[in-house]
Arabinose efflux permease family protein
Amino acid sequence: MTVDTQPQGDERVHWLPMVAAISSISVVGIAIGLGMPLLSVILETRGHSASMIGLNTAVAGVASIAGAPLATPLAMRFGVAWTMIAMIATGALAFVGFHFAPDFWMWFPLRVVLHIALTVLFILSEFWISTSAPPHRRGLVLGIYATVLSLGFAAGPWLFAHLGSSGFRPFGVIIALVTLAAIPVLAARNESPTIVADSETSHFLRYIWLVPTATFAVLVFGAVETGGFALFPIYGSRIGYSEADAALLLTMIGLGNVLLQIPIGMISDRVSDRRYLLLACATVGLVGTIFMPFFAANWHLMAALLFVWGGVVAAMYTIGLAHLGSQLSGHELASANAAFVLCYGVGMVLGPQAIGIGMDSFGPSGFGWSLGLFFGAYIALVCFRLVRKLLL
């Protein structure tokens, strides 16, 4: 089965549910941005090694892969809004559990529960946003979503810097934030989409292959974002940057992510086939990795390159999500969103491993070559799909 037609949807913007889903997930983003460094610092103060902290954090990717299949069945049974509220409550309880868990082994099941809840929450939020936005504004709406979410993630570390890691206070702030996230969902619960299984319901994994330009776009983004951010400081130090300069370059990537999502989303609304824009983003990603070694000698040139590179590569997630929404609707879109987030989790697992092996094998240049491998493979996939469409 191929999906080439865009479903005929309501042309109105459903503002209440859209704002509810965006604001809810963005508040959760602030909680995640605060909670992730908080948990790492607490483990370090308890005397755990960096490798053990990394192992506990890596459970997040595995939990995301495990949680993705649960989203659609839970939403079909209990409704989108009530499932989201349940996941918000589950995530809040898991966060509190970290404060009271005395033994390190307890943090592993807590991390699994937390990230399964977050995965289901993100899948259903993105499904809700996609169904609330009319086709001609889907890119803009998802660009707003990505921008606000990025700002939420950025606000978390700022809060952490002011709250510190001692005592219950940072956990109390997280509970308050997560409670706030439930309010807009409750307010818009009567306008949440209903997911009804069709007579030919099949496993959600088939949507990986049904809309591969979208699902593999997010896999590449997950690999590049997770592996690139984790190993860029090491890459930076090996090519001669100080720790502070490398950190500022990472900030430039994040700034590009925040500022370029809405403009690129608006462009995607004017493109008849978003696969061409995904191809362009991947090409910019590949060219950017090729030019990194040549720009490395000049910090300002490198910063400008990474600003554009970071924003355009991050748009692969936004445009991939918009392309998914333009091809599917209803139960199929919910299942495809689950496949989409699962592919992001797979990218989270593959990226750091591939880039780490590349740098161990080929030195600093292995960083760019590993990133380029992901972009090159995706470009080949999209070109194959586009040529196949022209020939059929």
User: Anything to note?
Assistant: The longest helix spans residues 330-362. Residues 139 and 268 are 6 Å apart (CA to CA). Residues 1-9 have pLDDT under 50 and may be disordered. Residues 15-193 form a domain with the Growth Hormone; Chain: A; fold (CATH 1.20.1250.20).
